[in-house]
Structures are given as C-alpha cells and as structure tokens.
Amino acid sequence: MYKEPRLPQNAKEGILFMLIISLISVNMIAPTIIFLERGFSLDVYVDTLKILPIMWIIVMILVRFVAGPLVGKVMPNFVGKTDGFNARVLLNIVLNVTCLSILLTIIGTWVGMKQITLEPIENFLRVWPRNFGVAFWIELLIAQPIACFTMKK
C-alpha cells in the first residue's frame, strides 16, 4: 500500500504480520464454521483441533500464492489516491476474504471430510455466504486490528 506504521515495513515484519493474522484466523474461523455446521460440542472441538495445523498450512499457501497476488492485481483498480488507510484495509479484507472463503469453502470441506467429493461444490451456494460472513467479521474485528496494533508497537 503506502508507508503506514500499522502495516509491515520490511520482510521480517511482513512474516510476523501474516503469522498473526493467519493464526488468529485459522483458530477462530475454522472452529466457528465447523461448530455452525456440526453443532457445539467437545467432540466437535477436538476433531477441529486435529485439522487446524493442516488448514493453517493450506491458508498460508493460498494467501501467498493465490489470494495475495490476485488481490494485489485487483486492488489498484478500486483504490484512489485520496483513499485513507481504513478504506484501503477494508477493501483489502473484503477482497482477501472473498477469495479465500471461496477456495476454503471447498478445500476446507475436503480436508474435514478427509476425501475429495462433489459435496462442497453442490452445497456451495448454501454454505459460502455463511463462511464469508464468519471470516469477514473475524478478520475485520479481531485479526486485522491485533496485527495492525502489533505492527505499530
């Protein structure tokens, strides 16, 4: 974006920023979505904990090689020179969450079921809006503010 103390200023800070956001996101978004799908119970939570490391790796790969480059190409088409930090961050969140939620609605189901089926594609229009909403609000209200606060400090 541009020089802003709430954003990473070098590669080391960029890695820290991505780690903070990805760890918060995976540990909050995946369990919330699974609880909404399968119900709230200790057994469901334990099952969720088993797939979190795999999901974290998948999220990191998708952010680095799919969502990041795609959003980087699309952002300049929507951002004006006078747009402020908050507008840029909000657009970045919307674009990243849209891209990742589309991919992870399918891939996450396959990982959770431990098999590749057509089910996530067949149920996509029913499931994706909920997944997007959960991911968007967690990113907007928790993950991004914590990561930006850490960068500022």
The helix-and-strand class reads mainly alpha
Strand fraction equals under 5%
* Number of individual domains: 1
Helix content: over 70%
Give the SSE string.
HHHHH
Radius of gyration: 16 Å
Count of helices?
5
* Overall average pLDDT: 92
Annotation, overall tally of beta strands: 0
Q: What is the straight-line distance between the termini?
A: 19 Å
Shape: globular
Overview of the structural elements:
- It is built from five helices and no strands.
- It is an all-alpha fold.
- It has one domain (11-152).
- The longest helix is centred in the middle third of the chain and has 37 residues, at 42-78.
- The mean pLDDT is 92.
